[in-house]
Amino acid sequence: MGNTIVKIDNLVKRYKELIALDHFSLEIEEGEIFGLLGPNGSGKTTTINCLLSLLAYDKGNIEIFGEKMTPVNYKVKKEIGIIMQNVAVFDELTVYENIDYFCGLYIKDKETRRKYVDEAIAFVGLEDFVKFYPKKLSGGLLRRLNIACGIAHKPKLIILDEPTVAVDPQSRNKILEGIQELNKQGATIIYTSHYMEEVEQICTRIAIMDKGKKIAEGTKDELKRMIKNTETLTIEILDLSDEMLEKIRALNHVYETDYSDSRLEVRFSGGKHNLIHVLNLLQENNVSFSRAYSELPTLNDVFLEITGKALRDKE
Amino acid sequence: MFLHTFKYDFRQCLRQKELTFWLILFPIILGSFFKVAFSELYEKTVKFDAVPIAVVETEKNAVFDQVIEQVSTGEDALFKVTRTDMKNAEKMLKDEKVTGIISTGDLSVEFSSSGIDQTIVKSFIQQYKTQEKIITDTATNAPEKLDTVISALSTDIESNKNIPFADDLDTTVQYFYNLLAMVALFGAMSGVFVAINNQGNLSSLGARKCCSPVNKLTSITAGLSAHCVVQTICMIVAVSFLAFILKIDFGDRLGLVYLSSIVGGFMGVAMGFFIGSFGRLSEGVKMGIIMAVSMLSCFLSGLMVNNIKALVSEYVPVFNEINPAAVISDTYYCLAIYDDYSRYIRKMITMIILTVFFTLGGYILTRRRKYASL
Predict the structure, then answer these.
(1) CA angle, corner B207, sides to B204 and B210, nearest 5?
(2) Are B238 and B232 in contact (CB under 8 A)?
(3) What pLDDT, in 10s, does the model give residues B260-308?
(4) Do the Cβ atoms of A78 and B204 come within 8 Å?
(5) Which CATH class, in words, describes the domain spanning A4-224?
(6) pLDDT for B226
(7) In the beta sheet, which residues pair with residue A103?
(8) Hey, is the C-beta of B8 within 8 angstroms of any chain A C-beta?
(9) Do A84 and B373 touch (CB under 8 A)?
(10) Least crowded by CB within 10 Å, which of A2, A172, A253, B86?
(11) Could you tell me which residue, B122 or B169, shows the higher pLDDT?
């Protein structure tokens, strides 16, 4: 890993009685795609707003590119690209004008700016919509415009705050591929989301947040190794007796079982061929089942095991 | 950076449909409506046409004949008289070829409808009846003075032309002045966008701008400048439309009407910026407040009901000195009424002071760079 690009030290942010950030610390290295994962209200956006010096905080210190971040540190701000959670574009300006406007806040030279704007348009695939006004764009295209406005000036640090909320799968994939491409081009990325699949797919390192605290940090494999769970089996069984459930619990490496709504979940901490062992046991006891599958642990399992609750409701 | 921000703020402002309506279409529509509504009054007042009447000789009345002859001749004739019998007169009245029928015997008057022309005829007969004894006495006792008396009476009767319309011409123009004052104040809607788009805790765009490496003062100044230029264009369009399309007579001080409108527009934009910078209310709520404040300001300055301003002046005189709508309309009134410029200059200075106050107040309220919450 290279230089430390972002350093957040012991950050505390209170909204009256509510502690939004509770002694939160973080370091992000150059070249990373760093994921901030957590449920809604966990403090991700508050962290980003403090990082950008938009929000005042009660305690702590923030450094970006080795300099203390303040609202008037224009040198640092010039190197940051921000894609806000809420789309921030002018309804009265066309796609091209919006990108040119935001790019122009960073790049003075007209020729360079024109080149950058054209590249940003091509990057997000909005070539056919340059003369469109934002109100004429679909949700996915609008998000892409929002991204183009944030990255056109080729920043070294790009912060994306939940950029795929309410976006169709096609646009979502395009956005995620784009983020990886920006990273390949040399930008350091901070990506916040409550979609664990996205974070797992693109982030090189992840911090999981809950109630303003960092509850875990590492690569996705490191995070998964932190927990007991190595495999979860799900089997659909119409009728399962308590006696049979006890036999399954007695199998090697099983540490938790749950049977409800004709659905059996068995969690293992280690072991090999666990699915075969369970299915053999069911056959030996003449228990019929319809569907069975095995899942490796996800970040949701990590969150579940650490906090005792799911990362987000199933959609 | 200023020019870049100015360019896009200007484009954005020009393309806002609400502003286009209130700042350009509203004065055109309402001005045209005023013009149509006041045109009949204007025609009657300024370009007086002789009232067509039928005179039926039911009895000989030499004195009346002499008087009616006098007021129906010349370029400035009060009546256009047709002498005929009652049957034909009634047909003419039915066909609306005459306004009324006067019988020479009892000087009775017959109309088929009511209106301004009918009022003139009625007033004429009433005045004649009042003066009739003087005329007949003069004819009996000093016939050599009869011509002089009839001439004096004719002059009196001719004043009937103006009886129902005293000062109407000024009042009509003042309605257009009021309209311009209202448009200038609607600039507040434009100003509120500058505040909202530059505050991180009021809009996503504000937050996004706060993250950019642009000084807040530069961003706000560019925004205000762009909106003031658009407001100036709108005021020029409004004044020009009234002056050259609707042919409203602003006298020989049209240049000063333009100047007052432009400065008034600046004050409107600054007022909107100031109000928009207050608190964390949504854009819709702030626009509602702006409209309410503008309307209240207009109402209390008498732009809607004439005697309200007098009442405010009686009970809270200082309010009229600082009420933006009252100050704008006062500058127009000063141009319309007073020959000297001292009062006009005082009102212009007040507008400039209010503009500076609102702008600085807005700057102070938006200068914050970090927010407690977003």
Answers:
(1) 150
(2) no
(3) 999 999 999 999 999 999 877 888 888 888 888 888 888 887 777 766 7
(4) no
(5) alpha beta
(6) 96
(7) none
(8) yes
(9) no
(10) A2
(11) B122
The answer to whether residue A16 neighbours chain B at the CB level (below 8 Å) is no
- Hey, which residues does A26 pair with through a beta bridge? A8
Q: By CB neighbour count within 10 A (0-12 exposed, 13-18 middle, 19+ buried), where does A81 fall?
A: buried
Mean pLDDT computed over every residue of chain A: 92
- Topology (CATH) of A231-296: Alpha-Beta Plaits (3.30.70)
- Whether B173 contacts B202, CB under 8 Å: no
In this prediction the ipTM stands at 0.85
**Chain B residues touching A101 at Cβ < 8 A:** 4, 8
pLDDT digits (tens, 9 = 90+) for A27-61: 999 999 999 998 888 999 999 999 999 999 999 99
B16 contacts on A by Cβ (under 8 Å): 92
* Rounded mean pLDDT, A83-96: 94
CA of B334, closest CA in chain A: separation in Å?
A: 39
Cβ A48 vs Cβ A57: under 8 Å: no
Same domain for B213 and B319? yes
**In this predicted structure, what is the pLDDT of residue B173?**
78
Residue B265 belongs to what domain range? 2-42+172-367
User: Is the Cβ pair B208, A104 closer than 8 Å?
Assistant: no
What distance in Å separates residue B5's CA from the closest CA in chain A? Answer: 7
B97 and B213 share one domain: no
Interchain CB distance below 8 Å, B204 and A80: no
pLDDT confidence tier of residue B237, bands split at 50, 70 and 90 = very high
- pTM flag (> 0.90): no
Distance separating alpha carbons of residues B302 and B180, to the nearest angstrom? 14
Domain ranges (residues) in chain A: 4-224, 231-296
Interface of B with A in 196-215 (CB under 8 A): 200, 203-205, 207-215
The confidence band for B330, taking pLDDT boundaries of 50, 70 and 90, is: confident
